[in-house]
Specification:
Strand content: 25-35%
Number of strands: 31
Helix content: 10-25%
Structural class: alpha+beta
Largest sheet: 6 strands, mixed
Shape: globular
Low-confidence stretches: 1-23, 115-121, 169-176, 190-215, 620-635
Length: 655
């Protein structure tokens, strides 16, 4: 995973907390702890991994996992083949409503990018017992392999949770405890290499990018940012006893402690916030991060938290009905809600007072219309006492004109089936070539006839699938859905009506030490030479404390959180937030694509904290017709956020 302060798919995913409750599916887990490696590797031992696995194992059993459904691999048992074999068993045994949990404690590392899908020159890896200590024997489990496993597992179950207490990248020299990172240089990788032997588990075109495709159901909690290390710590025995101190991974220890402090409605995001607060009171240079659509879901369930799907409903003095949520919360025109009294329980939808639909989505508030039996907005809204407090529960997330149009020539069985599966994502809609954003066409020039994708203007996208290959076709659909989801999220954030707050956002090159300005092309994109390090600065020029976040939008659909304030932190008036980006390296063979289609950094600031993960969730329920969308200007009273965008054109030029 390329950029330091982004969530990586080599995460340390969560052990969660909730009061034990009935669940229809089965909960299965694989727990891996590697504390000792072969003597000839000379790699530092990690004495805390055994205690970590025991701690997580007990936490899972206390929360509904049966002993026979939890597999544990330790030290020499945790070979690459054994880990991948047990992961495949988890996938094969999974069914709808099941939950799959994977935890890893051990060394993390980096290897030269094998799939040419990283913007930096490395893949992130977890280090099994038999990983090998030389370039010719590298046997790590790469982020690409983990990403592909999640994608395949999600075809059987909607719930995948990953837990890895290891480094994403970083250095061995930071103080305080043993680092769980193996530097590539220690392993003989003095410089990035063009490629290694292909992974035997994956066909070349099925290899994941490390970013989990849109629509996947997963949550990932990572022990640290991708430019940091994860550490071990000594935990004193119980007070008043002679029990010796025990060594644990700092992240695992604080994560499981947070388990018992949270109530039954707690989410994965709540868990991370609680664990981070206690961890960073001891080690501030280790910052846990989270990603994935299930971040806003209750721990170990497929149920969205109350705040994730419920919003305050109010009536203005002019009689208009307003919702305290809008585009910044991932909502657009057409989103449908059930109306309940504010104190109603989550299981009382059958007793709803009516339904409302968003007719105009504003920045962080929306105008609503009541929906009658015929599905149209009702002329007469129900009458309520002035003191009645109401809530709106999300039933269908609107797409409001933000679906991508695709053209697909032909009406044969293969074309019709592909069109059906693309439209089923609820993010794409088939249309005429003249109106399409993307065009899919057959390419017979290769050994096997393939589907290829290009923009309406003819620019080829790095997406393809051989006809008749179900795995490649699934990867193509995932890629297109990811691209559509990314464009939808960007459209929700960046429009002509996002200048409500005075916030400065700038990017400078740090290659020479002090920041210098980047050259700007005629189209406004900043030119970033390959290998350049960048520093991002967000400055709050308002008189209000703000929450701020920087998001990364890649031209091939990768969306991720670069960095920003947490739910419990703000950027004060006049204060600046500085974020670093690792060296950006063009993916091999795709230089022209990334130079022509810039990466985009979007900074968003608001007086209230928002869960930006909601922006990247797939629409729920029936899709709205294509067309329409948010209008320029905002008729609503709320003027509560600002978005700034900077496009970056990656260049192969030498500094």
């Amino acid at each position: 995973m390329p950029r330091p302060q982004r969530t990586t798919l080599l995460p340390v995913l969560a052990v969660a907390a909730l009061a034990l409750e009935a669940q229809a599916g089965t909960r299965r887990a694989l727990l891996v702890g590697v504390g000792t490696y072969p003597e000839q590797s000379h790699w530092p031992a990690l004495p805390g991994t055994r205690a970590d696995v025991d701690l997580v194992h007990g936490a899972l059993l206390a929360r509904g996992f049966r002993p026979e459904d939890v597999v544990v691999l330790r030290d020499e048992q945790a070979t690459r083949q054994a880990i991948l074999g047990e992961l495949e068993k988890l996938t094969a045994r999974s069914a709808r409503d099941d939950l799959v949990f994977f935890y890893f404690a051990g060394h993390g590392s980096r290897l030269p990018d094998q799939g040419h899908d990283e913007l930096d020159p490395f893949d992130e890896t977890i280090v099994p017992y038999d990983a090998g200590s030389s370039p010719s024997k590298a046997n790590d489990v790469r982020d690409d392999v983990l990403g592909d496993w999640i994608a395949r597992t999600n075809r059987r179950t909607d719930q995948v949770v990953l837990v890895f207490d290891c480094c994403s990248s970083g250095t061995n020299t930071r103080g305080g405890g043993t680092s769980r990172f193996l530097d590539p240089a220690v392993r003989g990788f003095d410089a990035p290499r063009a490629s290694l032997a292909p992974e035997p588990e994956l066909a070349p075109d099925a290899r994941g990018s490390g970013y989990v495709p849109a629509g996947r159901r997963y949550v990932a909690l990572s022990a640290c940012r991708s430019n940091e290390s994860a550490y071990e710590l000594a935990v004193p025995g119980p007070s008043g006893t002679d029990a010796p101190a025990r060594v644990h991974g700092a992240f695992t220890w604080n994560l499981v402690r947070a388990l018992d402090e949270l109530g039954p409605d707690a989410t994965w995001a709540d868990l991370l916030v609680r664990a981070s607060a206690t961890l960073r009171s001891v080690e501030r240079r280790q910052t846990p991060v989270i990603e994935g659509p299930l971040a806003a879901y209750r721990l170990f369930t497929a149920e969205a938290a109350r705040d994730a799907r419920r919003f305050a409903l109010e009536r203005a003095e002019d009689g208009a009905w307003r919702l305290a949520a809008g585009r910044i919360d991932g909502l657009t025109e057409g989103a449908l809600f059930a109306v309940l009294r504010a104190d109603a329980r989550r299981d009382e939808l059958a007793h709803r007072l009516g339904r409302v639909r968003i007719e105009r989505a504003g920045r962080d508030a929306s105008l609503l219309g009541w929906v009658g039996p015929d599905g149209l907005s009702a002329v007469d809204a129900p009458e309520f006492d002035a003191s009645t407090r109401l809530q709106a529960v999300l039933l269908e997330r609107g797409v409001g004109g933000l679906r991508l149009g695709f053209a697909l020539p032909g009406e044969d069985a293969a074309a019709l089936e592909l069109a059906r599966r693309l439209e089923a994502t609820n993010l794409l809609v088939r249309c005429a070539t003249a109106e399409a954003d993307l065009v899919l066409a057959r390419d017979a020039s290769a050994v096997r006839e393939r589907w290829r994708v290009q923009t309406r203007r003819g620019r080829a996208l790095p997406l393809a699938a051989a006809l008749g290959s179900q795995d490649e076709l699934a990867a193509l659909i995932d890629g297109l859905a990811r691209l559509a989801s990314a464009r939808r999220a960007r459209a929700l954030l960046v429009d002509d009506a996002t200048d409500a707050l005075d916030v400065a956002f700038d990017v400078r090159a740090m290659g020479a030490g002090s920041g210098r300005e980047l050259e700007e092309r005629a189209d406004g994109a900043r030119v970033v030479p390959a290998g350049e390090r960048l520093e991002l600065t967000v400055r709050n020029a308002t008189t209000l404390p703000l929450s701020a976040a920087v998001l990364w939008f890649s031209p091939d659909g990768e969306v991720s959180w670069v960095g920003g304030t947490s739910e419990e932190e703000t950027l004060g008036p006049g204060q600046s937030l500085r974020l670093a980006l690792d060296e950006l390296v063009l993916p091999a063979g795709r230089e022209a694509f990334f130079a022509e289609a810039p990466v985009e950094l979007v900074c968003v600031a608001s007086p209230r904290w928002h869960d930006f993960g909601a922006l990247f969730q797939e629409p729920v329920g029936p899709s709205a017709a294509r067309g329409g969308g948010a209008e320029g200007g905002d008729p609503l009273a709320c003027e509560g956020w600002t978005a700034r965008s900077i496009p970056l054109a990656l260049s192969p030029a030498v500094r």
